[in-house]
Design brief:
The chain is mostly helical. 71% of the residues lie in helices and 0% in strands. Helix 3 (55-66) packs across helix 4 (70-98) and helix 11 runs antiparallel to helix 13 (273-301).
Length: 304
């Protein structure tokens, strides 16, 4: 990637790590270099993390979609792994389009790790690693709680408005009970219905797939995959839409991930926390488009 895509070594390593590691674990691979990263490198690091899934959660999603059928589990395991691999380079492309690199020296400079940052011996290295992990978990947990609370507060206000105006009953009836009222997730679902259609999802399935994309963005992909599994079991989606949704949801691109990265990556490099906060929405946009691009390709190849 360093030679073919003109990336710095830190960007290349983090992008490769993101395929199997989480959005806060992969940056640990390049932790010594984060404090000196350019905005473009940070964007690549953040977008790559949001555009892919951690290997640890893939098993859960395989069990959701494949159920107890080993053959179906194997099919969806292959699709999810393929999606994560496809999303990594797609995330790089979108990151560089949104925040191009202007410092050519960063690409050509050989990076060296300061030996003092590694540790004096095995015990020191283990101790530092444990301390870094604890700080990372605390930062991520706090930021995640704060963002989820904000979304819950927004939903409370919207549901109150829906109750007064009668929108709640209209939403429930128009979506056949898929949504319990006028909520942030419902609004995003209606917005993403257009993107589902552009991706190539059959129009009859666009509202449901759009709602999945909205849930993924507003809450997280775990909830969206669980809902997709229910739709698949109920037979309300075509096979093509199920596969395309599997690819489109394969990533951590949601609002909570902004908080996770601000707390996680920002905890590793406090001097970069401002840049990470400012790049959060751009990274979310780039990662979401990367996932949709992979889903579009999957839809094109579905009938072959």
């Amino acid at each position: 990637m360093s030679k073919g895509m003109r990336l710095s070594g830190a960007e290349s390593l983090s992008a490769a790590g993101n395929i199997f590691m989480g959005q806060t674990e992969a940056p640990l691979l390049v932790r010594p270099f984060i404090p000196t990263m350019t905005r473009s490198e940070l964007m690549c690091l953040m977008t790559g993390g949001m555009a892919t899934l951690a290997g640890g959660v893939l098993a859960a999603y395989v069990s959701f979609l494949g159920g107890s059928d080993p053959a179906q589990q194997a099919v969806f395991a292959a699709h999810l792994l393929t999606a994560s691999i496809m999303n990594a380079p797609a995330g790089i492309v979108l990151a560089k389009m949104l925040v191009p690199e202007t410092d050519e020296d960063k690409i050509n400079t050989r990076l060296e790790v300061n030996p003092e940052q590694i540790g004096d011996n095995l015990i020191d290295a283990v101790s530092r690693g444990a301390a870094d992990g604890l700080r990372l978990a605390a930062n991520v947990g706090g930021m995640l709680l704060a963002f989820i609370a904000v979304i819950a507060l927004l939903n409370y206000a919207l549901m109150k408005i829906g109750g007064v105006t009668g929108l709640n009953e209209l939403v429930v009836s128009s979506t056949n009970g898929q949504f319990d009222g006028f909520s942030f997730q419902y609004i995003l679902g209606q917005i993403f219905r257009v993107f589902a259609f552009i991706m190539g999802v059959p129009w009859v399935d666009t509202l449901q797939v759009g709602s999945l994309l909205g849930q993924k963005t507003a809450i997280n992909e775990f909830v969206a995959y669980l809902d997709l599994a229910n739709m698949k079991a109920a037979g309300t989606l075509t096979d093509k839409s199920v596969i395309m949704a599997t690819y489109a949801l394969c990533g951590f691109s949601n609002f909570s991930s902004i908080a996770i990265q601000v707390g996680g990556i920002g905890g590793m490099a406090p001097n970069q926390q401002g840049n990470i906060s400012r790049l959060g929405l751009r990274a979310l946009l780039g990662a979401s488009i990367a996932c949709m691009m992979s889903a579009t390709v999957a839809g094109m190849l579905f009938a072959l």
